[in-house]
Amino acid sequence: MFSVKRLVESNNLSSIPSNYICQTNIQDYSIVLNETEIIPTIDFSQLISSNPMERSMAIQKLGNACRDWGFFMLINHGVSETLRDEVLRTSQCFFDLPSEEKKEYISEKLFDPIRCGTSFNLKVDKTLYWRDYLKCYVHPQFDAPSKPPGFSETLEEYTTKSREVIGELLKGISLSLSLEENYIHNMMNVDSGSQLLVINYYPPCPKPELVMGLPAHTDHGLLTLLMQNEHSGLQIEHNGKWIPVNPVPNSFLINTGDHLEIITNGKYKSIVHRAVVMNKKAARISVGTAHGPTLDTIVTPAPELLSKDNPSAYRGITYRDYLQLQQSRELARNSCLDYIRI
After folding, report:
1. Each residue's pLDDT tens digit, 164-174
2. Start and end of every Fe2OG dioxygenase domain (predicted)?
3. pTM of the model
4. Which residues neighbour 181 within 8 Å (Cβ) at sequence distance 6 or greater?
């Protein structure tokens, strides 16, 4: 199996192969990072509180975070630190498996239940990205590798809990838009919708400034829930500058996806972000779950949010077709949203 991890371990790597050197990254590296702005924090326990005043304030704060940032940290979410640590531990164990044991999952077919690979899309990537990955569709049907021992069971427990968290967030977002609590659930068939687990493995790199983990892009779907090990690398674009994300302990990072932007007709924007490689000695692991509608759902702006002064800004497209559009081309900022923008 071809992978960056194997490249690093087999060659005692001291220089970067030319097909991994990212010219865009080199040009972009001089942009001054903004390390002073703080990403909003949402307290999940307040969002589901039985105290109406406390919940109302949390919903308003959630709406502001989606409108102004498109990213926020989620604390007090109820997912145990023990489970989160076990997901990271067993994920490392998966990538440590011999290539022979992983090769059955190698695939370039978008809707295969389980697939692992490297870079983003080897068919179109002009530059290879410093990233290996495992992708599993975990809802409405759960699929995961059977090795290493306990990996599948750990992922099933984790993705079930993360789905519950996302469900409550979508209720709060519906209410923040002055819609009925289950509006997005019903419109997007969320209960039977798609949940994609993506585990990213960014190996150590001798010259991290020359490579890119993943270039600037937006996520498909409604919301993405992300956790990572102790090594940083995620940056988001805010007010024209890159902001490095350093999550508080035991928090999740949540970002709005392309389909939440479509539903809200642009009120809540899908935010551009990237994964830079920063570590010469240790691997960064991030675990994301992308939550979307059923594959055959046609996603359009919510009629209740449209008016004569605010007409529809996006044409309808099925979630399946949108995924195929995004995954068949180079990962480049929000180009897919541009494609369906009216």
Report:
1. 999 999 999 99
2. 192-293
3. 0.93
4. 171, 174, 175
